[in-house]
């Protein structure tokens, strides 16, 4: 396949993935923030206490109410598409369609291993820190889940949070880097696109997101003061060395180091925020080394733009969720 056709196919796949994930919430500078307001979706009723279930609307928030018990489930999972396990079978019954919440995500696997007395998963594809405290509204319409924080309560003893990637514009970064990878005018077309007036735009976004993560951790502590809070980082996506794998992720070779730095920078910020908030950071990057997108099926934890196993493009597959669950479980038991 020629370079032009390859890029066209890659762009089409990314666009399709964006639609599947709800194309993020409402507009923001980084392409990830959401506004307030209510969704027009109707809650689907399932048995109280099951993942994706609810008993009554969450006061003052609108949208599909978060699963609720009088004081919150023992274990509550919060987060974005990496936490939700987007497009990995099977979708949690009764959960909002746009969230694409998998029953094989790391939270479900962790809950099963710990045999917790009650568990609520409110993770959702395309979520940003803003969607933790307000209903998540999707550009493509559909059910609008209530604020993820509504699932928390004083009886909650364990919380996992995986967030931040959409705040820095993960979808935009993917699309930009793939679309510019054929630009021969510069060896680093993606880095150039995110450099304004000599400054790294993504580094600034990570810095700005730190304050949002800090505020989110404070809210969790206020709502669930006795909970063990685990802030889950992002796994290794690109190989640590070499020229990458254009068939899986068509990115200019010169941009690979830059993007590796973005992932490491995001994780470093999350680790620092966890330490500041007396939460526990879960490193999924280190155990994910050697399981990057360029590895063969059965080894890779993260899929490329044309997934070989069920998962969203550039997202963890079932094996990746299992690997992340092992890291989460180790900290939860520690």
Automatic annotation (TrEMBL):
Domain of life: Bacteria
Annotated GO biological process: triglyceride catabolic process
Protein name: SGNH/GDSL hydrolase family protein
Keywords: Disulfide bond, Hydrolase, Signal
The SGNH hydrolase-type esterase domain, residue ranges: 77-322
Signal peptide interval: 1-25
Compositional bias annotation for Gly residues: 32-41
Record carries keyword Isomerase: no
Low complexity bias spans: 46-63
Stretches the record annotates as Disordered: 25-63
InterPro entries documented for this protein: SEST-like, SGNH_hydro, SGNH_hydro_sf
Alphabetical list of CDD domains matching this protein: SEST_like
Disulfide bonds: 99-124, 177-190, 245-294
Any one Gene Ontology molecular-function term assigned to this protein's record: triacylglycerol lipase activity
Active site per database record: 81, 315
